[in-house]
Amino acid sequence: MTDEPIIDLHSDHYFMGEALRLAARAFEADEVPVGAVVVRDGRIIARAYNQVELLKDATAHAEMLALTQAEEASGDWRLTDCTLYVTKEPCPMCAGAVVHVRLARVVFGASDPKGGAAGSALNLLQFPGLNHRCEITSGVRELECRSLLQEFFAEKRRKKEPVLEPNSGINDYN
User: Fold this and answer.
1) What is the distance between the alpha carbons of residues 68 and 77, in angstroms, rounded to a whole number?
2) How would you classify residue 139: left for phi > 0, otherwise alpha for psi between -120 and 50, otherwise beta?
3) What are the residues facing 43 on neighbouring strands?
4) pTM of the entire predicted model
């Protein structure tokens, strides 16, 4: 028997790493660095990163793009057996979409105290009056996720560039 660790391809750590790689691509594209993957049965069925500036579309958040891809991949708008991994806590728009597609679970890295809708500012994912609630796991690879956001916004401040997304929580990542 070997003492080498077994890589669990079904682990939250692994899938958040995939989301982090996508967030780094967003950073390179001068987008707020958020990445997301949707997983079904231990396999990634959708990958996306923020593309608000590229697409000139305020709804082009990583989560929204990943959910749309996942719906296409599964052939159904219901994603009841899927998990969304995202590097930053979903905003109210994205959380609303998560509820509508009926995701089983959301796993995120960095919380967003001002605009997060998965338990920080509010919790739409488990709101009693809505028709669906999903499981939430927070803080997975949080330091890596938060560091990427902090670096992005620090660079924007150094260059005196405007923040790309309203309510992006720039002060939360100082």
Assistant:
1) 8
2) left
3) 40
4) 0.88
Tell me: pLDDT of 27 over 50: yes
* Rounded Cα gap, residues 96 and 166, in angstroms: 18
- Cα separation, 125 vs 28, in Å, equals 30
Tokens of residue 9, six digits? 């391809």
Q: Tell me the C-alpha distance between 78 and 147, whole Å.
A: 33
Contacts of 6 (CB under 8 A, 6+ apart): none
Task: Characterize the bridge pairing of strands 35-40 and 82-88.
Answer: antiparallel
Beta-sheet pairing, 35-40 with 43-49: antiparallel
- With beta carbons less than 8 A apart as the criterion, state whether 36 and 66 touch: yes
Nearest by Cα to 89 from 106, 64, 101: 106
**Long-range pairs of 8-11 with CB within 8 A, sequence gap ≥ 24:** 9/42, 10/42
d(CA 158, CA 164) in angstroms, rounded, equals 14
Question: Is the distance from CB of 103 to CB of 136 less than 8 angstroms?
Answer: no
Check if the beta carbon of residue 52 is closer than 8 Å to that of residue 58.
Answer: yes
Round to whole Å and give the CA distance between 48 and 3: 36
Q: Which residues does the annotation mark as catalytic?
A: 63
Q: What percent of the chain has pLDDT over 90?
A: 83
